[in-house]
Structure prediction request, 323 residues.
Amino acid sequence: MRIAVAIPCYKVTQHVLQVIQNIGNEVEAIYAVDDACPEGSGQWIEKNCMTPRVRVLYHPENRGVGGAVVTAYKAAIADGMDIVVKIDGDGQMNPALIPYFIRPLLRNEADYTKGNRFFRPESVQGMPPVRLFGNAVLSFMTKLSCGYWNIMDPTNGYTAARTCVLAELPLDKLEKRYFFETDMLFRLNTLRAVVKDIPMDSVYADEESNLKIGKVLPEFLRKHASRLWRRYVYNYLVRDFNVGTLYSLFGSLLVVVGSAFGAMHWLDSARSNHPATSGTVMLAALPILVGIQFLIAFLHYDVSNLPVEPLSDSLAAPQPDES
Prediction:
């Protein structure tokens, strides 16, 4: 197996050389992507790093972390790499963990691995409370919109992927900035790829975060809602029509009918000053209660409908483009 590492470089000149130096010999190629860095990260690496396995890629304009990772993914596919590990250049991600991230891929136990800082209670002791709460909320939203109910810490950028699976993804359509990791999970779910969490510790140094929660929260909510709807339509209406589809359709119908019936008679009672009969109340409540039970059954079906067979066995390894 040929292993590569992708490092998006934006304002990381203080840490990136040490990150590259700590990458083990199991890695054959390192793609450092200068994402129009104002500090000149690419030139800094070329000037101070003599390691022949490092290749610097340049963006003429800033494309965000997702755009930088996609550029490295394409280079790894073209060079015939088998696995690509993505780590940041700010020193938060320990390169010594790379063997743990690639092990499930080498054993064909998964198609994609990602870090999880919530696996052990000791791992989150250094995490600020605001980040701890925010990651918990984002994890639940991602489970709902992407369908991977077995994972936590969805915004964790320490990942590893098989290139044969990456070649099946519409890489140019992936989100370019902070929603990149979540969009990757959504796209992987449409392929029924197997995703596995790898325990890791959280590290917070003197890096400066460019993520402003107040600005991105409305965008995150909108994009999560969009992917939830698209996942439902694709998995339960287009690609398959199963018992989960029936649960969701009948559950939604019963809740809507019961709510509409109850609202109509409540308005009539309010206008006429005559309270609704117990029979009318039951006729409104019963469809709602049954509908909620159907929706809970659908949620249970969705939670248990996780991909279990890796795609790696059935996909041929991508070949370099010689055109």
Notes: The radius of gyration is 24 Å. The chain has a mean pLDDT of 89.
